[in-house]
Write a structure and sequence with these properties.
This protein has two domains: 168 residues, Quinone Oxidoreductase, Chain A, domain 1 (Alpha-Beta Complex); 138 residues, NAD(P)-binding Rossmann-like Domain (Rossmann fold, 3-Layer(aba) Sandwich), CATH 3.40.50. It is built from ten helices and 16 strands. With 335 residues, the protein is α/β, with parallel strands linked by helices. Strands 1, 4, 5, 6, 7, 8, 15 and 16 form an eight-stranded mixed beta sheet that branches. Strands 11-10-9-12-13-14 form a six-stranded parallel beta sheet.
Length: 335
């Protein structure tokens, strides 16, 4: 039941996918504006964020995702996209935190569209100093970085942190958040992206094509491996004797389990060593968005917005992401 609403249209433009595949399987269409439940808000989407998880949902790989309920033969949700920033147009009868016209950011469903539904528990008021495009690329990536550093990594001020994949979506936030929490940060990336990593505040940078972070010269209290694939023994060589590795992702390992195989091996190893491996599973919650808003309003964390594409160029944006050429984050605009 919706208790408040504006004269929202019943149809909208949206990017649609009917089968698993590549960027060529995404196309612009007109679909119904989603209905919202009692605990949801309807958001007029100004911008949406593109992240690696959306790419996985497009390809349907690893196949374990399909078994987990994402749709076996094709995507359960025809409209892709999770991150959003926009204006509240309608609220469910149980919603208490938001009113019509509020500017919000967070995680919804089917956000590559002009309207999207989102649970009240997964959105927060948009930081005032951010544009909609900047806010849209925060929720999933920055939330992942925050949780990996604090919930899983138990980061403390003064510790040394190694971020593998420091120039990407999650990594660009991990560098900044770790610095804001008082850590000494080393970022690993390709040579052409090291300037970005330095600009994010990293104390040290490593070009992984010419140097080895596990050469024994430095040991780190906490390592965030973001979509990297170094072996567990190599990670251990770079880790302090009682340090922690948080495995945030992995882009190889086969079509069935992807990077999950390495994570499972790490968990089996952990009980027998002093060092600790943690496998990270993201939680989507407004409390993290509200905590991030403090960093964002203070300017200690700034979204690294690399590219912006309109709704009709989502396939091009997805191809760019797949190529590995993205620096920071990509936003999709709908207005």
């Amino acid at each position: 039941m919706v208790t408040e609403h504006t004269a929202a249209p019943t149809r909208m433009r949206a990017v649609v996918q009917t089968r698993y595949g590549d960027a060529g399987d995404l196309h612009l269409d007109h679909v119904d504006v989603p209905e919202i439940a009692e605990n949801e808000v309807l958001v007029r989407v100004h911008a949406a964020g593109l992240d690696r998880g959306t790419w996985h949902l497009m390809t349907g790989k690893p196949y374990l995702m399909r078994i987990a309920g994402m749709g076996f033969k094709g995507p359960k949700d025809r409209v892709p996209g999770r991150d959003l920033a926009g204006t509240v147009e309608a609220i469910g009868s149980e919603v208490t935190k938001f009113a019509i016209g509020d500017e919000v950011y967070g995680i919804g469903r089917g956000t590559f569209a002009e309207h999207a539904a989102a649970l009240e528990a997964k959105v927060a008021h948009k930081p005032t100093r951010l544009s909609f495009e900047q806010a849209a690329v925060v929720p999933i990536s920055a939330g992942t970085a925050l949780q990996a550093l604090t919930d899983q990594g138990h980061l403390e001020a003064g510790q040394s942190v190694l971020v593998i994949g420091a120039s990407g979506g999650v990594g660009s936030y991990a560098v900044q958040i770790a610095k804001a929490l008082g850590a000494e940060v080393t970022g690993v990336a390709r040579a052409e992206k090291l300037d970005l990593v330095r600009s994010l505040g990293a104390d040290h940078v490593i070009d992984y094509t010419h140097a080895d972070f596990a050469d024994g010269n430095s040991r780190y209290d906490l390592i965030l491996d973001i979509a990297g694939n170094p072996g567990l023994s190599r990670l251990r060589r770079a880790l302090a004797p009682t340090g922690t590795v948080v495995l945030v992702g992995g882009e190889h390992g086969g079509n069935l389990t992807g990077g999950m195989g390495r994570s499972l091996r790490a968990l089996l190893l952990t009980p027998f060593i002093r060092q600790r491996f943690a496998m990270y599973v993201a939680k989507e919650r407004a409390s993290d968005l509200e905590r991030l808003a403090g960093f964002l309003e203070a300017g200690s964390v700034v979204p690294s917005l690399g590219h912006t594409f309109p709704l009709d160029r989502v396939p091009e944006a997805m191809s760019l992401l797949d190529s590995g050429q993205v620096r920071g984050k990509v936003a999709i605009t709908t207005i």
